[in-house]
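[job 0412] stage=fold_complex status=start
inputs:
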Amino acid sequence: MKMFRTFLRSALCSAVFASGAMVHAEGPSDGQVAARAAALEVAGAFSNDGFKLRDGYWSGAIAKGEAPVLALNLFAGNHYWFSVATTSAGTPVIELFDEAGRPVETEPWKDGQRAAAGFSAVASGPYFLRIRTGTGEAADFCVVYSYK
Amino acid sequence: MVRVSSGIACICALAVLASAPVGAEDLGAEAMSGAVRLDSFSLPTAGELFAAIGKTGKPSWASQYREPIPSSYSSRYRAALNLGTLIADGFIAVEAQDGQQVKNTGRDIMALAKTLGVSDRVLARGKSITDFAEANEWSTLKEELEATQNEVKQAMADQQDQDLVTLVSAGAWIRGLQVITGVVLAEYSPESARLIRQPGIVAFLRARLGALPPRIREDAAVAVVTERLGEIEKMVSFAAPETPAAESVRALNEVAAGLVKTLSTRPAAAP
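[job 0412] stage=fold_complex status=done
writing structure:
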């Protein structure tokens, strides 16, 4: 059954990918495609612990020295894992902030060009996710998230 | 400069590019106001919301079912809003682990999707939803429903109906709000009541609706949603430590339920 679920998840990811459910106006770069595959691989590990992968992603290119920010909405009681991968040689940094812009503590996970941040939301509402490359250099990136 | 490839929401042209100074302790107001906002990432799914409420008790999801709605509307915008509400219905049926209701809702989704010209792409999903429902694969069904929702939106984007994507999202959220407030009211607790605090989501939807072309904003269904969301925003924007009283939750439930009912009712034909 677990193998079937893993297969299904892969199939779903492939289907979403192939159908372009997250279509890019210009099309994703090769780096973004690679980053997405790596981020999904990290998220897959959390799926084994009962986390559901959100069928969506955030990807793009980070310019040197910059750090893109994304707004999202989380619910109290849910546990989240945000998984990121970049094409930069360094380990990416993923930070979460509350609606006032204050950093919140997350559970870190790192492995080479991939990282993840775990967070149990105590308050429902808006949050902000910031991504940086570990070296500050330009890179392509992709973020996915899981929840349970 | 940060270049972000943003998917559906990027096509909808509201994804704002942003960056924050590296190494800052707090995020500045500029970074927060300019943060990227994506339909596919910033807006939680109904399943995500229902997962949170499921931790506060044992909701009677079946009590949140509603009567079947029409399978076609003369206004495509009203149809898109109702398609969103039906997708939320699908999540409710999955939470209730009610295979027959899942299949019924799946059939309704397909019927309405057909009137919007997006049924072909989701036909295969409809089949797998039925299969998973028959096999009691509830966890997989949630994922399949989410994928279906994205498939519908993608099909709309592909046929240059990007504006409909916003309406599907709005419809799903409004129906989700009706359900969640209904669940909270059925067994009120402070922690479940605090889940209705969703100011960022309403602000996001209102911004999207405000950016629609005038001809769409003037549609009767879209206009009423825009108006009521202003009212709803005030009701779900209480400060984080506060807990809404049962009366406040009831008032919100009535607004959401009234809006869902208004959307699903075909306007009377002109004499």
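[job 0412] summary: The CA atoms of residues 42 and 144 of chain B lie 20 Å apart.
[job 0412] exit 0
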